Task: inverse folding
C-alpha cells in the first residue's frame, strides 16, 4: 500500500512544529495588518502608480539601510520598529508632497495604538514568563527542574512548556 501524498509533510511537521508555525504566521499577519493600517486608504491605493512604487521602494530601502547600519555597529534594533518608522516617514513625505490634493499622510490614532502596543508587548513578554516561573517554583518544589541542563541535554519538559507558553502572545 502506498503512502498518502501528504505523508512527507506529516513526518516533517510534528504537532509542536505545526503549533509554532501557526503562532508565527498568525502573529505575523496581525502585525502586518496593524502596520499597514497606519497609512490611509488613498495612499495604499496609489501603489500601482509610479509614486506608489517609489513609496514602497523608499520604505523598504530606508528600513534595510537602518537595519544594516545597526547590525554593522552592533546596536540592538527591532525590525518591526524600523518598518513602522519608515512607513510613518513615507506617510509624512506623501502628505508634504501632495498638500494640494489633501491626502492625509498617517493615521495618527492608529500610530498611537501601535506605539502603545510596541511599548507594552516587551513588558508583558518579560513579566508573564517571570510570573509563571515564580508560580512554578512555588508549586513544584523539584530543584532539578530549575537547574541548567548539562551538556547538550534539553531542559526538562515543564521548563520547555513554560518557555513555549507565552510564544503566541
Result:
Amino acid at each position: 500500500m502506498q503512502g498518502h501524498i501528504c505523508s512527507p509533510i506529516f513526518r516533517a511537521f510534528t504537532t509542536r512544529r505545526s503549533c509554532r508555525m501557526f503562532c508565527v504566521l498568525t502573529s505575523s499577519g496581525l502585525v502586518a495588518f496593524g502596520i499597514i493600517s497606519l497609512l490611509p486608504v488613498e495612499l495604499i491605493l496609489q501603489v500601482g502608480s509610479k509614486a506608489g512604487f517609489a513609496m514602497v521602494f523608499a520604505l523598504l530601502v530606508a528600513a534595510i539601510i537602518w537595519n544594516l547600519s545597526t547590525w554593522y555597529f552592533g546596536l540592538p534594533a527591532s525590525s518591526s520598529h524600523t518598518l513602522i518608522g519608515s512607513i510613518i516617514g513615507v506617510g509624512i513625505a506623501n502628505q508634504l508632497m501632495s498638500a494640494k490634493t489633501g491626502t492625509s499622510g498617517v493615521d495618527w490614532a492608529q500610530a498611537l495604538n501601535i506605539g502603545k502596543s510596541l511599548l507594552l508587548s516587551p513588558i508583558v513578554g518579560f513579566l508573564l514568563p517571570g510570573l509563571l516561573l515564580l508560580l512554578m517554583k512555588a508549586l513544584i518544589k523539584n530543584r532539578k527542574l530549575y537547574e541548567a541542563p548539562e551538556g547538550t541535554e534539553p531542559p526538562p519538559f515543564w521548563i520547555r512548556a513554560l518557555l513555549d507558553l507565552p510564544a503566541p502572545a
